[in-house]
């Protein structure tokens, strides 16, 4: 399944003692994206993707090559910048080269969610995105003014109707918090 995050480049060597790192973008589009987007993600293999907020970006040009240097909010010294060296950075911003086609079987965006517990065939929300996770994929669903994450496993997803663009779900009460 296609993740909502895509790799935009890698973190290079540290610069200075205050946590600045060199950023090596994958493309010129990424170079523009890093200067406009303030939230990027780094893959921490123990806990998945971790968000990093960009505090500052500056560029240097030497020998017709532009270098990007980035300061993140949680990276405050050379030791922590050494720890993230050579890790990939990801973004959830749209990349025109990665636009998914509607014909892909795993594209569930816009599918209506039907709760099988007493709602009949009434939609409780619609799929915004599908996130990849090492264990299983997760549906991000817009419900009212909020959103819900539904694991894409048999315990919660009982049936998919591609013709009607419906996903029948069960046991959703296990995922909802106590309402006051």
Search tags:
180 residues; mainly beta; Elongation Factor Tu (Ef-tu), domain 3; SH3 type barrels; 2 domains; 6-stranded antiparallel beta barrel; 6-stranded mixed beta sheet; 12 strands; elongated
Walk me through what this model shows.
There is one protein chain. With 180 residues, the protein is mainly beta. It folds into 2 domains: 6-98, Elongation Factor Tu (Ef-tu), domain 3 (Beta Barrel); 112-174, SH3 type barrels, CATH 2.30.30. 8% of the residues lie in helices and 46% in strands. The strands form 2 sheets. It has a 6-stranded antiparallel β-barrel with strand order 1-2-5-4-3-6. The chain is elongated, with a radius of gyration of 20 Å. The protein starts with 5 loop residues before the first strand and ends in an 11-residue tail after the last strand.
